[in-house]
C-alpha cells in the first residue's frame, strides 16, 4: 500500500505491513517486538488489500484504497517492545509524519476486544482487553471522515479521566490534541507532534471509538431485567415472569413478559420500604408509602442481581424528597423510563452533555409535572434551553457554566421561580420580563460580562443579595443601589472596580454587607451607607477609607496602603477588625473607644506603640501586633480578658511585669524575634493561676534563668525557646512542666537535656538541633513521643532501653560527626518510619570531595501540626557529566503522592530534556510539561507546586561562568543572596499575588470562591497535576536565568509556608549568621514554626563558592564501545579494563543477595519512569582529563566515581559535610510494604523509611566514565572481601538512604564506569518503582529500604480514570523461558567483568528511529515468574 503525501487532510491508518514487525511478537527489522493479535487487522467495508491507487473512501476522504485500521492489543504480556512511539510506525509512516507537522496520530480506544477474535500464544487471556487503533491523520481531518473510513458511528473524547463527550461530526480530533498541548505550554510544532503520539497523554486526553461502558454508572441510572414477580402480600396471587425496571424513584413492572407495551405498573418507592424475604432465596419485597401502599415481590436469579437491586432500592426509599441525582454521568439524555417517575420534584443533571432532541432530551423535561428543582449547570449548552420555561412548577433553576449569551424573555413565565443561578456564563444583559418574577429571591450573576448593575433588579423586590463577583463593573454609583431598596448584601469582588461614587450623599440605608475585595480602588468613602455591618475591601490600593460607624460590626481592610481609617461615629458594635499589611504608624483614637472589640489584627504595619487603653480593654480577646516597631508594651492596670497576644518581630526589650497575673485568661503568647533578656513571673506568689498553653520565645536573648520563671505555667503545652543564650535548662524546673507536649530548644548552647524530661509524660515532640549536646536524652521511655530532632549536635553514643515506644515516627541524628552506632542500635531503630543518619567518611576523602564542587547544600522539612508530610526535596550536587547541580522542592498542600512522584522523576526528565535543547526557557518549560504528563492518573485530581533550579555553564561558553536557571509553578520560591541582599528568582503563581493570572482565569470563566481558590480547590493558577482544572490551572512554568558571580553567597528554596512567615531579608540574614547549609535550613524551618506556622515547611539552602578563576578544562573525548556477546546475565555491570579480572568476586556475596532481591518492580518503572529516547554512549577508560578548580574529577552525586579519583583518594567514600540527604519524606498515608522481598542479613527491610545524609538521589542523571581504577582502589575493595559474604562490616558508619516510598539498594562493590543516560542507570543500581535509580556504593553493607506497594487505596490509587491498557506487565510462567530467550537475543547481557554496551546518543526527531536503542537492563533470575522489563512504555500507570 502506498501513501499519498500531497493531501494534507488525508486520514491514514497504520498497517502491519510497513512496520517491519512480524506477527506473533517476532522481532522485526527495528530490533523490537510488538505484541499483536494475529487476526486483528480489520479491513474497511467494500475494500480489499490489493485495490489500486486513486480510489476514494467515503465522503471527504482522499487516501489511497486499501487503507486499514490496525487494532493493536496494548496489554503487556511478555513482549518487551510493546508499541512505543518509535515502534508503532514503519519508515513510510515516519516519513509521512515528518513531512508536515500538521500530521499526526490519533489513538482510538475501544471498550473491549471482540471475544470472537482468536487469542493464542502470549495473547491468551481470560479477561477483556482494551484494544487500540492508531489512526494517522492531519489536523484538518474531521470526525465524520474518520468514522467514514472506520465504518464507525461516532467518536468520544475524555479529558483527565473524567466525563466522556460525543464529538460533533465537524470537530477535528488531532487539532483538539494540538490545541490542548499548545494551551499546556508547548510551543514547538515538532514537539507538539511528538507529544501527541505519546501514550502517557491518554491520562489527559483520550479518544474512544465507542462510548466506554461503566457498570457502576449503569447500576445507578437504570436497572432492568426479567424476573419472577408476585403482586400483593396475599398468597392468592401467582408468580409470573415479568420485565422489571428500577429507574428514578419508581419500580416499574410490565404487564407482559418480554415487552414494554401495554399497561405498566408503577410503584413509587420514596418513603416506602424494601425488605428481604427470608422464606425465599434472593427475594425482595418492595412497598410504596402511604395508607394504600402496594407491594411487589421480586425473585432474582443470582445473588449479584439481588445485591445490586437491594443496594439501589435502599437508597431510593431512604430519601425524604423525590430526588434523582444523575450528575457527572456523561449523559446526553435521561433514561426514557425516568418519565414514569411522575413524582420527581428534584432533578440534578449537573456535569453532563444534555442535548435538546431525542426521547430523553431536554425538550421532554416538561413531562415532569411536579418538578420543582432542576440543575443543568456545566452542560455545554451554549444557548438557554427555552423548553425549561414551560415547567411552570419550577422554584429553582441552575444554568451556571453553560456559555450562555442571552436569557430569553420566556423566563418571565416561571412565576414560581425563587432561585435562578446564571453564574459563569457570557451574559451582559437581562430581559425586562425577568422583572415580573415576584417570588425570585436569589439571582446569581457572578463571573459574567456585565459592565453595570442590571436595571431590572430594581423590580425584583424579593432579591436581597446582588451576586456579581467577577464581572466588569468598573464604576459603582451608590445612588443606583439606593433605588434598589431591597438589596442588603452586595458582592462586587474581582470586578476591576476603580471608583465608588457618592454624588448627592444620598443615604443608602438598606445595604448591610458589602464585599469589594480584589479591585482597583484607591479611595473609598462609604459614609452614606449608614447601616453597614460588614465590609470586605482587602487587596485594593486604598489610601483613605471613610465609613459610618453606626452599625459596623466587622471590618476587613488588609493588604492596602492605609495610613489611617476614618469612622464616625465610634463603632460601638465593632467586634472584629483586620488592618494588617498597611502603613499605619499609629492607631486611631476611636479604636480604644470601641466597647465590644474582640479581635484586632494590625500585623505588618509601622506602629511604634500600642495605646494603654487598648491593651486594658475589657472586651479585647485577641490582639495581633507582630511585625511592627514596638519598643514597649504598656502596663496592665487591671485584670483583662485577653486570650491571645502576638508581639513577634518587634523591638521589645521587656514585657510588663504584671502580664501573666493580670491576663489570667492568656492562653497564647508569641514574642519571638525581639530583644527580650527575661520574662515576667507567672504570679506574685508561689501559687500560680496561669492558663498559658502556648509560649513562643524564639530568637531573643534569654538565658537559663528564664527556666525558673516558666514553672508557674503548669498548663503549658507548647514551649519554643529556640535560638536564645541558654547554657542549660534547670532540671528541677523542667520536671514540673508535666503537661508539656512540644518542646523546641534548638540553637542554644545546651550540652545536655535534663533527665527530668522523662517527667513530661505527654511530650510528643522534642526539637533540640544545633546545640552542643553530647549525651542522648532520656526520652525514649516517654509513652507518646513521636518526633526527636537532635541533629547538628555533638552526640557520641546513644544509651537505649530494651524497646522503643511504638509511637516514635521520626528520629533525626544527622550532623553528629562523632556519633557511633552499632548494628544492634540500628536494629532497634528499624521500626521508625523516618530515621535520618549521617554517612561516615574519612577526613581526607571528605576534604577532597568538598573541594571538588563549588557548592554544597542542606535541607530541612517539618510536618508541623499535620499528620503527614506533603513536601519533598530534590538535591543533587553532582548533576550531569560536568560541574552542574540540580535542586528542587515540591509542595502538594494536602496530598503527598504528587510531590513524591516529582521528587523521583523530575531530575531524570530534566536530564533527558537537556539532550534535546540548550535553550533555558525551552528545556525547563518542557521539563515541567513532561513531568506533568508523566504524573498520569495521579495528576488528574491531585497537584503540587514545584520549583527547579539548575546550575550550569552557558552552552555558548562552556568554560565561562556559571548560570542559574530557575523554573517554578505554584507558590514555591527561590531567593539568591548577592552581596548580602536578597534577589528573588521565582514568581508566585497565586490568584492573590498575580494580577495577570487572575485576569486569565476570570477570562476562561472559572468560578473563584471567596477565599480566592479556583473552583474552591487551589489558590494557584499554575500547578503540576490537577489537570481536571484545565484550562484554568496550567503546568507552564515561569523560567528565569541568572548569571552567577563571586558575590553570590547562597541560594534559598522554600515553600509557601516558609516565606509567609520569614521574609526574604530575614531568611538571608539567618543563613548568613549560620553558614552551614544544613543548620541554616533547620533554623529557617524552626523560625517559621515559632512564628506561628502550623503547616508543612521545607527549606533548601545551597552554599555557593563561585570563584573568578578561568576554566582550563580540556574537552571530553567521546568514544564508543563495540557490543559484546550475550553471556550470562548479572544484576550489576562492572567496567572492563586492565584491572584485576577477579574484582567481581570481592562482592560476590552481595551479588548473590542482590540477585534474589531484584525484581521488575524494583528495576522497571511504571509510575514516573523516565526512560530516555536517546541513549548516550559512554566510552571505555581513557586518559585523565585536565581539570580546573571549577571542574574537578567527576563524582556521582557526591560519590567519587571509581577510576576517576587521583592518587591518595578513596573513590567510594561519600562526602558527609555539608552534603545531606537528597531523598526526603515522612510518614505516608498509603503505607508501603515489601512482602515479596526476602530478608537479608543485616538489612533493615521492615517498611521503615531511612534517610541517608549523602548525595545519592538518582543515578539516572548523566555520569561520565573515568580512568581505570588505581591499585589502591583495588586493594581497598579486596579488603572488603575479608568479611563474611564479601561485605565489609562498618560499625561506626551507617549506610542508610532516603527513599520515601522507593526501594533503594546500596551495594558494596566498585563501579568503575557509570553511564550518563537515565535509561541505562538500572545497570548500576536498583531502579525504583517510582522511576528513581540509586547507584551502588563502595564497600558498605547492603541496606535496603523496602517501600514498594500501597497498602490501602487512597489518593491516585483510586483516581477515577479509565486505566491505560499499557499499565500492566505480565509474564505467564509458561512463557518465562520464551521471553528470556527473546530478551537475550535482543539485549546482550554481561557476565563477569564485561560491560553492556549502549548505542550512541541519537538526537534525531522521535519519528526518525528505525532502530530503537538497545534495552539497557538486566534480566535477573530469581524465584517464581520473572516480570520482564519494559523501557519507554506507559510510565505513569499506578
Q: How would you sum up this structure, described in words?
A:
This protein has 1438 residues and is of the alpha/beta class. The protein has 25 helices and 61 strands. The strands form 10 sheets. The protein has a 24-stranded parallel sheet, with no helix packed on it. Helix 3 (173-184) packs across helix 4, helix 15 (897-913) crosses helix 16 and helix 20 (1064-1074) packs across helix 21. Residues 1-87, 112-129, 842-851, 1110-1370 and 1387-1438 have low confidence and may be disordered.
Gyration radius, in Å: 35 Å
Largest sheet: 24 strands, parallel
For the termini, the CA-CA separation is: 39 Å
Strand composition percent: 15-25%
Low-confidence spans: 1-87, 112-129, 842-851, 1110-1370, 1387-1438
> Helix tally?
25
Helix- and strand-based class?
alpha/beta
What's the number of extended β-strand segments?
Answer: 61
- Name the overall outline: globular
Helix amount: 10-25%
The residue-averaged pLDDT reads 75
Describe the structure in brief.
The chain has 1438 residues and is an alpha/beta fold. The protein is 15% helix and 18% strand.
Features:
1438 residues; alpha/beta; 24-stranded parallel beta sheet; eight-stranded mixed beta sheet; globular; disordered N terminus
Amino acid at each position: 500500500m502506498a501513501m499519498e503525501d500531497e493531501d494534507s487532510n488525508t486520514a491514514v491508518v497504520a498497517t502491519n505491513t510497513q512496520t517491519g514487525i512480524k506477527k506473533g511478537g517476532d522481532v522485526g527489522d527495528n530490533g523490537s517486538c510488538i505484541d499483536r493479535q494475529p487476526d486483528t487487522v480489520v479491513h474497511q467495508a467494500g475494500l480489499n488489500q490489493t485495490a489500486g491507487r486513486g480510489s476514494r473512501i467515503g465522503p471527504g476522504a482522499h487516501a489511497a484504497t486499501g487503507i486499514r485500521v490496525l487494532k493493536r492489543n496494548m496489554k503487556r504480556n511478555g513482549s518487551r517492545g510493546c508499541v512505543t512511539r518509535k515502534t508503532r510506525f514503519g519508515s513510510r509512516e515516519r516519513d509521512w509524519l515528518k513531512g508536515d507537522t500538521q500530521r499526526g496520530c490519533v489513538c482510538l480506544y475501544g471498550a473491549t476486544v471482540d471475544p470472537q477474535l482468536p487469542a493464542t500464544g502470549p495473547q491468551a487471556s481470560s479477561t477483556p482487553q482494551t484494544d487500540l487503533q492508531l489512526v494517522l491523520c492531519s489536523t484538518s481531518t474531521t470526525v465524520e471522515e474518520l468514522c467514514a473510513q472506520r465504518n464507525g458511528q461516532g467518536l468520544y473524547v475524555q479529558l483527565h479521566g473524567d466525563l466522556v463527550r460525543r464529538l460533533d461530526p465537524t470537530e477535528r480530533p488531532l487539532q483538539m490534541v494540538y490545541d490542548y498541548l499548545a494551551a499546556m505550554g508547548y510551543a514547538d510544532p515538532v514537539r507538539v507532534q511528538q507529544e501527541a503520539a505519546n501514550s502517557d497523554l491518554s491520562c489527559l486526553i483520550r479518544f474512544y471509538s465507542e462510548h466506554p461502558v461503566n457498570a457502576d454508572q449503569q447500576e445507578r441510572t437504570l436497572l432492568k431485567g426479567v424476573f419472577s414477580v408476585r403482586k400483593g402480600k396475599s398468597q392468592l396471587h401467582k408468580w409470573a415472569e415479568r420485565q422489571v425496571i428500577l429507574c428514578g424513584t419508581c419500580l416499574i413492572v410490565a404487564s407482559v413478559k418480554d415487552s414494554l407495551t401495554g399497561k405498566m405498573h408503577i410503584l413509587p418507592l420514596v418513603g416506602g420500604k424494601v425488605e428481604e424475604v427470608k422464606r425465599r432465596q434472593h427475594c425482595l419485597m418492595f412497598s410504596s408509602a402511604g395508607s394504600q401502599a402496594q407491594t411487589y415481590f421480586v425473585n432474582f436469579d443470582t445473588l449479584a442481581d439481588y445485591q445490586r437491586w437491594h443496594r439501589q432500592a435502599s437508597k431510593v426509599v431512604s430519601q425524604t424528597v423525590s430526588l434523582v441525582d444523575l450528575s457527572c454521568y456523561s449523559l446526553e439524555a435521561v433514561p426514557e423510563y425516568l418519565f414514569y417517575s411522575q413524582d420527581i420534584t428534584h432533578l440534578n443533571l449537573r456535569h453532563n452533555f444534555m442535548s435538546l432532541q431525542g426521547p430523553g432530551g431536554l425538550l421532554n423535561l416538561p413531562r415532569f409535572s411536579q418538578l420543582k428543582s432542576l440543575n443543568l449547570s456545566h452542560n455545554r449548552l451554549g444557548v438557554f434551553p427555552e423548553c425549561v420555561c414551560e415547567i411552570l412548577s419550577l422554584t429553582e433553576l441552575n444554568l451556571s457554566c453553560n456559555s450562555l449569551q442571552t436569557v430569553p424573555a420566556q423566563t418571565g413565565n416561571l412565576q414560581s421561580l425563587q432561585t435562578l443561578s446564571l453564574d459563569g456564563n457570557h451574559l451582559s444583559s437581562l430581559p425586562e420580563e425577568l422583572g415580573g418574577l415576584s417570588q425570585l429571591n436569589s439571582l446569581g450573576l457572578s463571573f459574567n460580562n456585565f459592565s453595570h448593575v442590571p436595571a431590572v433588579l430594581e423590580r425584583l423586590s424579593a432579591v436581597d443579595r446582588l451576586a456579581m463577583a467577577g464581572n466588569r463593573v468598573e464604576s459603582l454609583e451608590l445612588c443606583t443601589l439606593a433605588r434598589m431598596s431591597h438589596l442588603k448584601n452586595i458582592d462586587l469582588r474581582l470586578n476591576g472596580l476603580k471608583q465608588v461614587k457618592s454624588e448627592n450623599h444620598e443615604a443608602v440605608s438598606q445595604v448591610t454587607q458589602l464585599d469589594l475585595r480584589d479591585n482597583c480602588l484607591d479611595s473609598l468613602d462609604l459614609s452614606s451607607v449608614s447601616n453597614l455591618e460588614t465590609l470586605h475591601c482587602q487587596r485594593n490600593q486604598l489610601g483613605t477609607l471613610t465609613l459610618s460607624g453606626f452599625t459596623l460590626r466587622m471590618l476587613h481592610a488588609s493588604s492596602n496602603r492605609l495610613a489611617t481609617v476614618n469612622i464616625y461615629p465610634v463603632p460601638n458594635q465593632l467586634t472584629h477588625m483586620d488592618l494588617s499589611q498597611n502603613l499605619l504608624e499609629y492607631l486611631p483614637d476611636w479604636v480604644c473607644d470601641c466597647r465590644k472589640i474582640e479581635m484586632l489584627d494590625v500585623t505588618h504595619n509601622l506602629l511604634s506603640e500600642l495605646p494603654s487603653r487598648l491593651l486594658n480593654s475589657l472586651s479585647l480577646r485577641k490582639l495581633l501586633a507582630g511585625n511592627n516597631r514596638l519598643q514597649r508594651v504598656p502596663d496592665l492596670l487591671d485584670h483583662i480578658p485577653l486570650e491571645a497576644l502576638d508581639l513577634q518581630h518587634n523591638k521589645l526589650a521587656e514585657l510588663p511585669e504584671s502580664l501573666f497575673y493580670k491576663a489570667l485568661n492568656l492562653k497564647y503568647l508569641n514574642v519571638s524575634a525581639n530583644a527580650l533578656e527575661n520574662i515576667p513571673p507567672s504570679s506574685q506568689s508561689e501559687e500560680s493561676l496561669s492558663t498559658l498553653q502556648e509560649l513562643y520565645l524564639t530568637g531573643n536573648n534569654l538565658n537559663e534563668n528564664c527556666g525558673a520563671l516558666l514553672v508557674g505555667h503548669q498548663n503549658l503545652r507548647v514551649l519554643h525557646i529556640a535560638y536564645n543564650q541558654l547554657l542549660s535548662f534547670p532540671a528541677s524546673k523542667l520536671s514540673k512542666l508535666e503537661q508539656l507536649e512540644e518542646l523546641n530548644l534548638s540553637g542554644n548552647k545546651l550540652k545536655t537535656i535534663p533527665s527530668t524530661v522523662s517527667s513530661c509524660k505527654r511530650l510528643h515532640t522534642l526539637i533540640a538541633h544545633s546545640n552542643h549536646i553530647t549525651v542522648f536524652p532520656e526520652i525514649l521511655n516517654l509513652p507518646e513521643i513521636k518526633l526527636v530532632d537532635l541533629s547538628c549536635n555533638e552526640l557520641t553514643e546513644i544509651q537505649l532501653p530494651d524497646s522503643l515506644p511504638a509511637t516514635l515516627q521520626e528520629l533525626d541524628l544527622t550532623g553528629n560527626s562523632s556519633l557511633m552506632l552499632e548494628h544492634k542500635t540500628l536494629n532497634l531503630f528499624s521500626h521508625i518510619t523516618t530515621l535520618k543518619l549521617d554517612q561516615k567518611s574519612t577526613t581526607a576523602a571528605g576534604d577532597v570531595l568538598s573541594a571538588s564542587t563549588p557548592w554544597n547544600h542542606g535541607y530541612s522539612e517539618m510536618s508541623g501540626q499535620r499528620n503527614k508530610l506533603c513536601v519533598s526535596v530534590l538535591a543533587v550536587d553532582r548533576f550531569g557529566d560536568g560541574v552542574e547541580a540540580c535542586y528542587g522542592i515540591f509542595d502538594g498542600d494536602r496530598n503527598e503522592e504528587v510531590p513524591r512522584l516529582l521528587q523521583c522523576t523530575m531530575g531524570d526528565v530534566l536530564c533527558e530534556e537537556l539532550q534535546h535543547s540548550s535553550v533555558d526557557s525551552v528545556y525547563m518549560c518542557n521539563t515541567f510539561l513532561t513531568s506533568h504528563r508523566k504524573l498520569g492518573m495521579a495528576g488528574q485530581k491531585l497537584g503540587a507546586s514545584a520549583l527547579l533550579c539548575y546550575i550550569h555553564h552557558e552552552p555558548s561558553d562552556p568554560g565561562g561562568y556559571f548560570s542559574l536557571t530557575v523554573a517554578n509553578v505554584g507558590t514555591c520560591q527561590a531567593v539568591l543572596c548577592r552581596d548580602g541582599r536578597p534577589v528573588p528568582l521565582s514568581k508566585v503563581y497565586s490568584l492573590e499575588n498575580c494580577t495577570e493570572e487572575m485576569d486569565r482565569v476570570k477570562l476562561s470563566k472559572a468560578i473563584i470562591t471567596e477565599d480566592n481558590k479556583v473552583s474552591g480547590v487551589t489558590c494557584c493558577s499554575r500547578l503540576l497535576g490537577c489537570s481536571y482544572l484545565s484550562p484554568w490551572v496550567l503546568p507552564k512554568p515561569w523560567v528565569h536565568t541568572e548569571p552567577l558571580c563571586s558575590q553570590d553567597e547562597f541560594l534559598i528554596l522554600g515553600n509557601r509556608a516558609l516565606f509567609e512567615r520569614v521574609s526574604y531579608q530575614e531568611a538571608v540574614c539567618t543563613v548568613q549568621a549560620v553558614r552551614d547549609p544544613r543548620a541554616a535550613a533547620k533554623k529557617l524551618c524552626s523560625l517559621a514554626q515559632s512564628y506561628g506556622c502550623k503547616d508543612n515547611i521545607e527549606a533548601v539552602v545551597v552554599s555557593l563558592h563561585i570563584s573568578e578563576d578561568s576554566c582550563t578544562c580540556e574537552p571530553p573525548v567521546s568514544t564508543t564501545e563495540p557490543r559484546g556477546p550475550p553471556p550470562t546475565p548479572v544484576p550489576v555491570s562492572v567496567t572492563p579494563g586492565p584491572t584485576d579480572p577477579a574484582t567481581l568476586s570481592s562482592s560476590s556475596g552481595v551479588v548473590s543477595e542482590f540477585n534474589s532481591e531484584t525484581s521488575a518492580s524494583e528495576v522497571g518503572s511504571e509510575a514516573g519512569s523516565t526512560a530516555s529516547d536517546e541513549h548516550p554512549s559512554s566510552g571505555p577508560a581513557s586518559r585523565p582529563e585536565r581539570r580546573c578548580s571549577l571542574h574537578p574529577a567527576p563524582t556521582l552525586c557526591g560519590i567519587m566515581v571509581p577510576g576517576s579519583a587521583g592518587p591518595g583518594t578513596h573513590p567510594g567514600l561519600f562526602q558527609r559535610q555539608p552534603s545531606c540527604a537528597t531523598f526526603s519524606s515522612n510518614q505516608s498515608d498509603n503505607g508501603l510494604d515489601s512482602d515479596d522481598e526476602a530478608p537479608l542479613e543485616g538489612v533493615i527491610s521492615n517498611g521503615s523509611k531511612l534517610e541517608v545524609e549523602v548525595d545519592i538521589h538518582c543515578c539516572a542523571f548523566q555520569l561520565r566514565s573515568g580512568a581505570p581504577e588505581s591499585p589502591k582502589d583495588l586493594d581497598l575493595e579486596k579488603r572488603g572481601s575479608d568479611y563474611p559474604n564479601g561485605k565489609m562490616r562498618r560499625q561506626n558508619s551507617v549506610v542508610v538512604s532516603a527513599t520515601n516510598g522507593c526501594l533503594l539498594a546500596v551495594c558494596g562493590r566498585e563501579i568503575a564506569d557509570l553511564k550518563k543516560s537515565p535509561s541505562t542507570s538500572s545497570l548500576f543500581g536498583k531502579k525504583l518503582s517510582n522511576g528513581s535509580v540509586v547507584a551502588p556504593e563502595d564497600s558498605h553493607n547492603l541496606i535496603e529500604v523496602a517501600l514498594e506497594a500501597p497498602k490501602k487505596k487512597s489518593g491516585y490509587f483510586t483516581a477515577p480514570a479509565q486505566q491505560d491498557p499499557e499499565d500492566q506487565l505480565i509474564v505467564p510462567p509458561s512463557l518465562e523461558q520464551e521471553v528470556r530467550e527473546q530478551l537475550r537475543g535482543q539485549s546482550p547481557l554481561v557476565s563477569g567483568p564485561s560491560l553492556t554496551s549502549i548505542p550512541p546518543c541519537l538526537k534525531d526527531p522521535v519519528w526518525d528511529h528505525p532502530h530503537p536503542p538497545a534495552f539497557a537492563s538486566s534480566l535477573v533470575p530469581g524465584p517464581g515468574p520473572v516480570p520482564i522489563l519494559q523501557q519507554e512504555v506507559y510510565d505513569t500507570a499506578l
